[in-house]
Every structure is written in C-alpha cells, then in structure tokens.
Design goal:
Blueprint (H helix, E strand, L loop, with lengths): L1 E6 L11 E2 L3 H9 L5 E6 L13 E5 L5 H13 L3 E5 L1 H5 L1 H4 L5 E3 L7 H10 L5 E2 L23 E2 L1 E3 L2 E2 L10 H5 L4 E2 L2 H10 L4 E4 L8 H11 L5 E6 L7 H9 L2 E9 L3 H7 L6 H13 L3 E8 L8 H12 L5 E4 L7 H8 L25 H15 L2 H14 L4 H17 L24 H5 L11 E2 L3
Helix pairs in contact: 7-8, 8-9, 12-14
C-alpha cells in the first residue's frame, strides 16, 4: 500500500519560503500508520508533488486558505483512482462541503481515528466521516522526524505540548477544532521528543504556552537542562507572572508571538483582552523585552470600532514601542466563527472564494470604511513599517534586546524581509468580490448538522466514532 500525505500550498505563503513553519500533524499521522505502508510526505511550500507516482490513499491537510488547492489536488488524485481523505480545520467546520471533493473526511483531530481509517481502507470499508473527539495527548506518538526536509533558510522542529484554548475570541476558530479545555502532553514526553530529535531549535506549536501556569512552569523547568532555543506563542498576560516569565527565559525561549490584535482601546475592551489599556500593553511589552525575550506582535485591522485613523495609530504605537518586527493582518471571518456568522447575518461577506481567506485579503464590508480603503490601509502600514529606513531603525533596538547571535539575527532579518515582501501581494482591487450572488449557504452543512446525520446529505451520512 502506498500512502501520500500532503500539506497544500497557498499562493501567498508560497512566496515566503525563507521561514518555514513545521507541519507536525502529518508527521504524527505517519507514526500512526502501519510499518508495512510505503509513506510519502509532501509539504508543497517546500517541494512539488510528483504526479508520475501512483498512490492508493492520499491524505490532505486542509485549512480554509488552502481549501481550493486541496479540492483541486483531491480531484486530480481521484481521477487517477486514488482514495482521498480530507482533514484539518476547514473540513472540520464544513465537512459536508469537503465530502463533495473526497472519499472520506476526518472531523477534528485525526490521531484518534487514523489507524481505524487506514484499516477500513484496506478492508474496502472506508466510511464517509471519522470523528473521535479530543484524543488523549499522552497517547499521541512522537512524529516521524525522518520526513523533515530542510530547504528553508530558517527551519526549526515543531513540538506539541498542549491543545485547546480557554478563550472564545469571536474571530478565532481554534476552539472549534481543539476545544476550550486545555489538554496537556506529559512533560516527560516532550523532553523525550526533544532528545530524540537532532535539533536544538524548536517551535512550540501551542496556541498559548502560558495558558495553564502550573503546567507551563513544569514544562519550562523540564526544558532548562536541555540547552535548546525555542520560539512559541503566548498571551500577553505572561508579563503579570514574573516567576513564569523568568522560567520561560531560562528554558531557552528566544521569542514569543503575541496576539495584541489591536492598538484601539475600544477594540481591546470589546474583545475582553486581559490587558484592556494601551498603557498596560506597553508596560507588558517592556517587561517581556527586559527579560530577554523578543516580542513579535500580531495586529489585526478592520474591527468594527476601527476608523481610517487606525492605520496611523498603529504606526505610532509601533514607533513608540520600538518593536522590530510585527505580523499585520486584516480581520478574516473564518467559517465556523461567531464573527463569520455575524457578518453573514448582516450581509457583510463579499467573497466566499476560500483562497482569499488568508489574513491579507479583505473578504467583508468593514463598518467605518470601504473594503478597498481597508486593503489600501493594510498595505500602507505594512509598507511604512517595513520600509528600508524603518528596518535600519529596528536594528539597534533588536540588538539591545537580543545580544549578537547569528541565528536570532538571521531570524530578525528574514522577518523584516518577509514583512517587506507581504505588501506586494496585498490585493487592493477587490475585483473578485462576489457579493454573495453565487453563494447558497444552505447547501453547505456545518459540522454539528453532519454529526447528527442530516438528511440533506447527498447520500446517507456515516459518522464513524470510536471511544
């Protein structure tokens, strides 16, 4: 049996190959696959699929932005006689859409049902839907590291420590996939995974490494003797727990990605963020930077409280805090989120072409400006922050926070180059907006209806659940 596991490319991400985010899920599935199966893992951001080869079963990991590409690949393989399984966040949220393009769909995390799915395929009894809610992370095996392909300039190994998020941000789909309860991987397993790898640089793929203080402190203490460097993602409330922040630094943390989301006080209050004032946020940034951890913020433009003043306000905030890098996005109403439903109810969704759901394309009608004004403002802020003169101004502050280190300096440089490149691909024309004319949402059933076996399915729905 020949198995192909694919992470599809996206038109935007493919342009930014210098920094590679590890694809951990497919490598875990490879570990769960029987030893007698011939496995190929392809990340399209790194290398192309060899279509001259034949595969019996193809598994495709699908996000909303890569849904179109996933469906295209699925159709191509199915025409060649392969059976195709779609999984990931987008098929989980819209399984009835996904099954129109595949032989089977995995709803939610795949680890709990993958072995059964492969066995069903071999017996010729492949089901349409597979779903095992929230697998026990202590039973999830180490990923197959032998499929790793180091073609990016800056590459690191992905680590799994927790899944789930207790928050319920209106614009975020994480809880729809992983749930709101934080599940932990035993620290001893994380340490052993690190020891078995051949790397000293890691990316912890959790949504919030500080989400459960007791576990986080145990984890950081477990990492200290290993002499590794790692980056991850955290809530800014980490600054309030000085003990945890110190342990985080001593464990080898080089940089953290923080979801600031907005520099607008009214937006922060509306999102019920831990720090509700800009002054608190600026103080937290200083505390984290003073502890030797580089602060990489994510900022979103386009909230309902945002006016056109938000663009200059954002640049002023970034200049005041002297942050050397940032990730700028436009608000994206992902299917399954409360934001998507609200915008849909208000008639504000202007495109259902999933390839546009990429954080950088405006797919909705903003409240206080036109879609084009939001797109142009996004490009303006991106261009200004990552202009050559601004990048030069970033260097001294970065070096003050992060002493000379070749790898960290390279990461800083690459983030700035990538940030400058982003503006080239921001589409401000909006010529593709479909204004809902071709969209019939009643034909695309959400996950909860599929799991109940809705009679609107094109054929009887078989939801396969195993405890």
């Amino acid at each position: 049996m020949k198995l192909l596991l694919v992470s599809p490319s996206h038109k935007f991400r493919k342009k930014l190959r210098a920094i590679k985010i590890p694809q951990l899920g497919l490598h875990i599935l490879a570990s769960l696959t029987p030893d007698d199966v011939d496995i190929t893992v392809v990340d399209e951001e790194i290398r192309e699929i060899d279509f001259s080869l034949d595969y019996d079963l193809v598994g495709i990991s699908c996000m909303t932005a890569t849904a179109n590409r996933s469906y295209q690949l699925s159709g191509r393989f199915r025409k060649r006689g392969s059976k195709v399984v779609l999984g990931g966040i987008h098929p989980t949220i819209l399984p009835q859409e996904a099954i129109q393009h595949a032989d089977a769909v995995v709803i939610g995390e795949a680890e709990g049902c993958w072995a059964d799915l492969v066995n069903d395929f071999r017996r010729g009894t492949l089901q349409k839907f597979y779903h095992v809610p929230e697998p026990d992370l202590s039973k999830v095996p180490f990923p197959r590291r032998d499929f790793r392909i180091d073609k990016a300039i800056f590459n690191c190994v992905g680590l799994l420590t927790t899944r789930g998020c207790p928050y319920a941000c209106e614009f975020c789909s994480v809880t729809d996939f992983y749930g709101r309860k934080i599940r932990h991987r035993p620290v001893s397993m994380v340490v052993e995974d690190i020891k078995q790898s051949d790397s000293k640089t890691f990316l912890i793929l959790d949504d919030n490494v500080a989400g459960h203080p007791e576990y986080s402190k145990e984890l950081f203490e477990g990492l200290m003797p290993l002499g590794i460097r790692w980056v991850g993602q955290s809530s800014i409330s980490l600054a309030r727990d000085r003990e945890m922040l110190k342990l985080c630094r001593l464990s080898g943390c080089a940089a953290l990605f923080f979801g600031l989301e907005s520099v607008s006080p009214s937006s922060l209050v509306g999102m019920k963020k831990a720090l509700k004032s800009i002054e608190e946020t600026e103080e937290a940034i200083k505390i984290i930077q003073d502890n030797g951890i580089a602060f990489h913020p994510s900022i979103i433009l386009g909230f309902d409280t945002d006016t056109k003043a938000i663009f200059d306000d954002t640049l002023e905030f970034l200049g005041r805090t002297k942050l050397p890098t940032m990730a700028l996005q436009v608000l994206t109403p992902y299917p399954g989120t409360r934001l998507y439903q609200r915008f849909k109810d208000q008639g504000r969704i202007i495109s259902h072409d999933w390839s546009h759901y990429d954080h950088h394309t405006v797919v909705f009608q903003p409240k206080n400006m036109t879609p084009q004004e939001l797109a142009e403002g996004h490009r303006y802020v991106q261009n200004e922050f990552y202009s050559f003169s601004s990048i030069l101004r970033h260097i001294p502050y970065f070096l003050r926070v992060s002493p000379i280190n070749l790898k960290r300096s390279l990461l800083f440089l690459l983030l700035n180059i990538a940030g400058k490149s982003v503006a080239k691909y921001i589409d401000t024309s909006l010529d593709w907006a479909d204004n809902n004319e071709k969209w019939d949402s009643q034909k695309i059933l959400p996950r909860d209806k599929v799991l109940k076996g809705s009679s609107l399915s094109p054929s009887p729905v078989s939801v396969f659940e195993r405890a």
